Amino acid sequence: MSDLIDRYLGAVAALLPKAQRQDIVAELRDLIMNRVEVQEAQLGRPLDKREMEALLREIGHPIAVAGRYGPGRALIGPELYPFWLFGVKVMLVIAAAAAIIPAAVLLVSGQGSTHTINGVISDFIPTALSLIGCATLIAAAIERGWIKTGDFGQWKVSDLPHIPKTRPLFSKNRFEGLFELVAVAFFIAWWTGLMPFPMGGIAYDGDQVGVVLSPALKALYWPVLGLAVVQAISSLFVVIKPAWVRPRAGTELIGAVGGLAVVAVLWPAQPILTFALPDGGDVARLQEVVDLTFKVIMAVSAGICLTKLFVDGWRLVRGR
Amino acid sequence: MPTDTDIFESLRQELRRGTLILAVLAQLREERYGYSLRQALSGVGVEIDEGALYPMLRRLEAQGLLASEWREEDKRKKRFYQLSEEGRAVLARLAGEWRAINAALEPLL
């Protein structure tokens, strides 16, 4: 029977810190022998192999028993856990956006296929798992004091966002701000040529269509880029410092004025995009639809910019 | 979905956790080894799992509240634990705290 006890204690010992191993194992042996003695006294005979197995199983699996002698510290403690969870949620939104937005652009521009949708899932899962793993490693290191957080734990109530009972016009929460930031980042990447322009290879009736940008649009390269950067800064405020109402209202105002100016330049310069088939085929219907789309987009954008002028102007004055 | 029994059991465990330490410290005013301590606690109606008791004794010793020594008894080496001076002081403070909580809660219950 002592063979079973030795095997059990050997399995526990292998999982214990070397410095305490001998001590803990000796104490566990005493505990087991006491229980054996009590049980044998009750039965009036030595325990058989099955009874000994049952007794040791009752004490617990070697991993569980050795674990109880550990430092007793959770991988991520209750104080840190809400921060870890928030960080993971934010990263999952980023991972989802990074997987979905390029695929959505490909699908909308007619370049996507069923592989594009499969690609969303196969891109998202490893990215999400890697991000969760990184977040967990960092949180575990913070929990153990290996990473010092310094003043990060210091926060002020006045930094928290003002949450009115009714949601004001054009207000955004952190997630919406983050989504907008990612979307603007993609736009900047396309605009600056870091990513291929989604309309670059449009097909119509099975033929590749040539797309010519309006000279006015080309002339607005830097202003549009500047407006996108301003919008990214505004979104960044929403994500990092939601309580900074005035700086955000200021950037939104700049964006609204800039947006109106862009519409004012582009409206008389229509068509914004001109389509042509290599063989001189008829693309009038396509041109008509796109022209109308741009008209609607510009009219709606101008309306939004005008409204923002008042709303963000008022926000800039009130500071809330 | 946790049942009422699950919820009760979880709350009961939470309630007992701190009181077990108090009971262990109180029983170690006199020297005992692990098994005899468990018997003594059981004798006054406090049941504690051995798997929790032994690691708890080590933690309390590491915190300086208990002192221990290995001695031979009944032809076997056993580790005897007893409250240290610091442990006695902490036990007195914890006992005061327990009585205050008890006095405050009793009229509410």
Instruction: Evaluate the radius of gyration of chain B.
Output: 16 Å
Strand content of chain A: under 5%
Low-confidence segments of chain B, given as residue ranges, are: none
Structural class of chain A: mainly alpha
Oligomer: heterodimer
Strand order of the main beta sheet of chain B, please?
1-3-2
Amino- and carboxy-terminal Cα gap of chain B: 28 Å
- The CATH superfamily of chain B is known as Winged helix-like DNA-binding domain superfamily/Winged helix DNA-binding domain
Strand content of chain B: 15-25%
> Helical element count of chain A?
11
The CATH topology of chain B turns out to be: Arc Repressor Mutant, subunit A
What is the spatial order of strands in the main beta sheet of chain A? Answer: 1-2
> Total number of β-strand segments of chain A?
4
Task: Report on the architecture of this protein.
- The complex is a heterodimer of chains A (320) and B (109).
- Among the domains of chain A are: 2-68, no CATH class; 206-320, no CATH class.
- Helix content of chain A is 67%, strand content 4%.
- Chain A has helices spanning 2-13, 18-43, 49-59, 62-68, 81-108, 114-143, 174-191, 215-219, 221-240, 245-266, 284-318; strands at 203-204, 207-208, 210-213, 273-276.
- In chain A, strands 1-2 form a two-stranded antiparallel sheet. Chain A has a two-stranded antiparallel sheet with strand order 3-4.
- Chain B is an alpha+beta fold and 109 residues long.
- Chain B has a single domain (4-108), classed as Arc Repressor Mutant, subunit A (Orthogonal Bundle), CATH 1.10.10.
- Chain B has helices spanning 4-27, 34-43, 50-62, 85-108; strands at 32-33, 66-73, 76-83.
- In chain B, a hairpin with a 2-residue loop joins strand 2 (66-73) and strand 3 (76-83).
